[in-house]
Specification:
Helix 5 packs across helix 7 and helix 9 packs across helix 11. The protein folds into two domains: about 260 residues, Aminopeptidase (3-Layer(aba) Sandwich); about 210 residues, Alpha-Beta Plaits, CATH 3.30.70.360. Helices cover about 30% and strands about 25% of the residues. It is of the alpha+beta class. Bound molecules: zinc ion. The site of zinc ion has 5 residues, from helix 3.
Amino acid sequence: MNSSEVLEIFKEITRIPRESGHEELMTAFLQDFAKRRNLECRVDPIGNVCIVKEASPGKEDVPTLVLQGHQDMVCEKRNGVTHDFQTDPINYVIEDGWMIAKDTTLGADDGIGVAAMLAILESDLPTGKIECVFTISEETGMDGAFGMEKGFFTGRTLINLDSEDEGQMFIGCAGGLETYATFDYTREVLKAGNTILRLAITDGVGGHSGDDINKGRANTIQLMARFLCGELNRGLQLILIRGGNKHNAIARECEAIVAVPDSEATTLRFNSFSDDVKAEYCRTEPVIKMTAAQYGCTEQPVDSEVAARLVRALFACPHGVEAMSQDIDGLVETSTNLAAVRMRDLGKIEVLTSQRSAIASARKMIAAKVEACFVLAGATVEHTSEYPGWKPNVDSRILAQCVESYKKLFGFAPEIKAIHAGLECGLFGEKFGDLDMISFGPTLRGVHAPGEKLDLASLDKFVDHLVDVVTNFN
Ligand SMILES: [Zn+2]
């Protein structure tokens, strides 16, 4: 078994529509794959698939090894591109050693992991019993891993093939939850002699609230709140504030519509604040834009008392890294993201934040800290969508075997890392008890966005390593 066989299978997978929540054709493809090769195949009611390769002769005593990846892919395309992810195959090119989908996502996350598993299933590699587990809807909330029943797979050692940096072995991930704060408000009368302005902060770099939380990028909501705080006792009235979007993204944009006394030089101060921000973030926010312009609006302002509490809470709310790992150098262990603020009808303003940590108690602590801030400001607070982390075990057996194999093949040790984001391993660990787990994969770049690409040289190494690990596993 070699990387070109894996690549051929992956090319076949690129022709199968498999957007999260619509994996039916992919599930059918996997069932058919197993059937044609006479392999045992189980499908659970939600669409998770487990295909079994029985032990080769003489390998019956080797413990069962679980390989795991996800069936679905993120479906994103460039503006103006006509591509129907429900029906069309992915267009890709091979260029300078990369396989690239230029206008859409490629789906190598996690199609390449799935392809590697299928190549192993159809190979005649001498291995112990292998269970290949293909989950659904990983990308939209890990529904497959959440809904899987105990006993769907039986092995106690699991290799997750959903990582994106060849040469790195992942042994831990963060869990997370979301914390919502809600403010009730009424409208008040616009003061005489006030001018309406629209303040906008746009073109922040943003990024992933886990992977990118330690990169020193601006949070545009917090910048806006910082400015508005300074204006509160200058007669500012808040008409609207809106910023951020998804719980797992750093807010790239924020706008506020405000009424300010004609006598106040608010625009001048906003411009000078913009200069300060550009100087403070001279490396991490090269193109951030801040503009103030007169605005036509008939909406009445939020009552001043609530506006002041809201703005101060948004400014004071923790955002960023809370603690670094004491086990693994350079790994963020606990963090929080001030993700979005939106005004709803019926007099509600909603603030969305999300917290991450590999350690359950630290996750609860940071969520409680965010809660404390908003409760002080008179908001009601709710926590939702909690999922478990995977705490690194540096004494893991499968880790030792993977490192040993890597050194033997390539002459140097792989990096051992954990990620500050979610992996399905966290859920498996929590649900199925003591599992020995690791995650690795070939190098991918630009995942979840058009232009996603797969490094083909890294695929060679990944496949050689995986083959060596599964054949020598004991
Ligand atoms: Zn993935």
